[in-house]
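Q: Could you write out the predicted structure for this multi-component system? I'm mainly interested in how the pieces pack against one another.
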Amino acid sequence: MKHIKTVNKPNLQESVKKGGCGECQASCQSACKTSCTVGNQVCEK
Amino acid sequence: MSEKIHKFIQNGMYILLDVNSGAVHVIDKMIYDIMDTFDGTNDDDVVLSLRDKYDEAELREALSELHELIKIKELFAPDIDVPPTFSDIGIVKSLCLMVAHDCNLRCKYCFADTGDFGGGRELMSAEVGERAIDYLIEHMGHRIHSEVDFFGGEPLMNMPVVRRITEHVRKREKETGKVFKLTLTTNGLMLNEENRKFFNDNNISLVLSLDGRKETHDRMRPDAGWHGTYDRVLPNFQKMVASRDGKNYYLRGTYTKYNLDFTDDVLSMADAGFDILSIEPVVAKDMPYAIGESDLPRIYEEYDRLVEAYLARHREGKGFFFFHFNMDLSNGPCVAKRLAGCGAGHEYMAVAANGDLYPCHQFVGRERYRLGSVFEGVTDDKWPEYFRHSHVLNKEKCRDCWARFFCSGGCHANADLFHDDIREPYEVGCAIQKKRLECALMVQAVLAMEKEQS
Ligand code: SF4
Ligand code: SF4
């Protein structure tokens, strides 16, 4: 395409069917923890 | 209506995010303008409105590209409803152990009120800590992995108990086949040779608190005698990180109204030899260092600066890992996870020094949220239920927000602090979150394109 460059292979819609296994971490996003804001996590599967 | 797309300009790059698919498109100015009007069906309206600005044939061509995206569900992808996993029985995934309600620093922004959470200074006993681990094992269901965080106050003030609990964890792992990831957060003052060895031998991840430049750090993080601590903690952190080959840690800081030029703090951390970094806005009400609405334009500018600095260092081969810019756009968490949020109050809980359970470390001491204790279990079912159902789709502001699948609804503790209601997000936090996400999406787009070219 000339005007658009897609930079990823999105998985959100697919994951509605497949996701929810629950192996991923809890994801606190408060300043004092910096553990894992959800957007910054990866899927554990 | 919920936002289906979000378009923005970050450091000169035009980006279009398709909210419900997660597709990230780098676009030109023409597409950017088209998206003011385009809804998937109204090509002629678009052409009419932009005819004076662009060539009609070019517009038609751009529109046909957009239609291709719609066809493959990467533009205007359909809304996503609550995934079925939400109706499952709750399990506990992780615990935060407040091993010391005491601290040897007097950080001015500390949510724990210099460590004692507004109550007395108290250390967790080994008995409480071990019981907490057993409680977790009893409630983690079929899950194999679990996380336990040593937190405080300052956990190093109670090292004998940290050691006892760690031993207990390792023993229980052998008995049950479960696998625990241990993390400890420290201010570094008591990080000596002996502790270093223990953390390395036991594979404990570390979160190290440093606010960046010496003047920034010393201003907000003095010791109990109000002396600066930078010169004491920095060498401790450097030795710690060197002793584990630069891995398995985070160096994190907090920025306040006093250092809105926090890019310099991040770079100062990098220059001190660290490359896994994070810095986050302070959350405070009515304090001189608190961040408010009026600081937002300045903060946005600073994130632009941080992006520039981040990419510049990356290109010079001196790149660092910055927590909030790190994002896997193709293999992120599933929708169920994205909607569920932080897990506080049901999947994740904090254990106070005396064994009481709270929704998370920030809620410790907010008495109306006490859930029970590791000895008697959760005695108040109403809160876990309420937290569990306080996901993105049940929060009015979040339901329609473009950032919903990345942010997953913000911090309940902050919402409670500002609005007495965990379902009403804290606005300044939202504004910063969204800006950070735009930066992260841009950074990831740049990195993806660089990779493709090489
Ligand atoms: S409520 Fe806030 S501080 Fe507590 S776990 Fe959730 S994001 Fe973290
Ligand atoms: S907490 Fe704020 S930024 Fe996050 S999804 Fe909700 S409204 Fe959006």
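A: Regarding packing and overall arrangement: DSSP finds one helix and one strand in chain A.
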